[in-house]
Design a protein that fits this description.
globular, 6-stranded mixed sheet, 407 residues, Rossmann fold, alpha/beta, 2 domains
Length: 407
């Protein structure tokens, strides 16, 4: 038997973009049909290539981390491997039983009970009826849903459905496991079970493909990484090398492109620019953990704004909030119109772990919390940090620490 468990050769996926079925699109379809009948040229539908020429192979026991921006094609790749969709061209082989934690509970029926959905979802994942029966008690215990197992799952919370879906998938004994951001959801107990299951499968030398925007998760679990961008392979190889290059790209892109989204405010104050600078007060988008980072916010105000508050919040690559800071309305005041003002925030030291982050900046009234302006993803920056061999820290935030033995 081949030691290669996953193999892709020039896999590509194309979607034909169409508008919804409203009057205009029906008119378009009638026009296309008429043109075909009259043998007139028919304009082609717009095409979108989600993947192009993806080629790689994974030996047994490999843990591959998928990285890349939203819309890069990572989820499409996992859907092809799990046979949710088929490639437009190219071929792929998955040897052995496949387990997919792509969309938790995707095979559930809301009108059926938890018990009935275990049977349904188990069959979808390739388990026999006898196998489902033999593992039923373990699945229910794992999901911690014994009191609700005969209740229709339309009455389950999203967290309960998530636990049940993971419990079924975790007991398929897969040879290849696909995971899409599953480690970022659920409560602490659920995430611990996810991590323990991954550890168990790694010990059994199962092949795992993990898709995550959380770079510490990739660093912690993956033995190799694939960077996908625009549907194409940008780089594949050893985890540290791929992540270093990916972060370099994110930092370079952040330096040249600012993708701030401004909300509909009242126009009494505006955020015009947000720039990150290094200790020498030079524009910079890549820092080392522990550096001094300066954040300059250029703004204007049409009139005095008593009680104004500026806030800056940090987000990971997927947009999850990581906390932030705000000004004191009793200390920082706008007492007259401001044509061009600059407010500086100093983070010294910056304590984010290795990864890529964005900043959102807002101006609001302190009492009513009404926004004068809000710029989401006002700027992006990257943080370098310990390489994968350093396992002393994890997550997004670094906590200065010291270990000592008291005995």
């Amino acid at each position: 038997m081949s030691d290669t468990t996953v193999e892709l050769s020039n896999v590509a996926k194309r979607y034909r973009l169409r508008r919804g079925w409203h009057v205009t699109s029906l008119r378009d379809e009638v026009g296309r049909l008429t043109a075909q009948l009259l043998r007139r040229p028919v304009p082609p539908r717009e095409e979108f290539w989600a993947l192009r020429d993806i080629t790689f192979s994974l030996p047994r026991g490999e843990v591959l981390g998928l990285v890349g921006p939203n819309g890069a094609g990572k989820s499409t790749l996992l859907k092809i491997l799990s046979r949710v969709t088929v490639p437009t061209s190219g071929s792929f082989v998955v040897r052995g039983r496949l387990g997919a934690l792509i969309e938790i509970g995707a095979g559930f029926h809301p009108e059926l009970t938890g018990r009935e959905n275990i049977a349904l979802n188990g069959v979808i994942l390739g388990m026999s009826r006898r196998e489902i029966q033999s593992k039923f008690d373990r699945i229910v215990a794992f999901a911690e849903l014994d009191r609700f197992i005969d209740t229709p799952i339309k009455y389950y919370s999203s967290g309960m459905q998530m636990r049940l879906g993971f419990a079924v998938a975790a007991h398929t004994d897969p040879d290849v496991l696909l995971i899409d951001e599953i480690l970022a959801v659920g409560d602490a107990s659920f995430q611990a079970k996810c991590a323990n299951k991954i550890a168990e499968l790694k010990e059994q030398r199962k092949t795992i493909i993990l898709c995550s925007h959380n770079l510490p998760s990739i660093t912690e679990h993956a033995t190799s990484a694939l960077w996908v961008d625009g549907g194409r392979t940008r780089m594949i190889g050893e985890t540290d090398a791929v992540l270093d290059t990916y972060l370099e790209h994110v930092a370079t892109e952040a330096a040249s492109i600012h993708t701030g989204e401004t909300s509909a405010g009242e126009g009494l104050a505006r955020i015009h620019q947000v720039v990150t600078l290094n200790y020498a007060e030079q524009p910079e988008t890549r820092f080392d953990r522990g550096d001094r980072v300066l954040i300059d916010i250029t703004f204007s105000a049409a009139q005095p704004l008593p009680g104004v508050v500026f806030h800056v919040s940090a987000h990971d690559l997927q947009g999850y909030p990581l906390g932030g800071v705000a000004t004191d309305p009793d200390t920082l005041k706008i007492t007259a119109p401001v044509e061009r003002g600059v407010l500086r925030l100093t983070l010294d030291p910056i304590l984010f772990n290795r990864g890529a982050y964005s900043l959102s900046v807002g101006i609001l009234e302190s009492t009513t919390k009404r926004y004068y302006d809000l710029k989401r993803q006002a700027t992006r920056f990257a943080i370098d940090g310990p390489r994968a061999a350093d396992r002393e820290t994890y997550g997004h935030v670094y906590y200065p620490h010291r270990w000592e033995s008291l005995r």
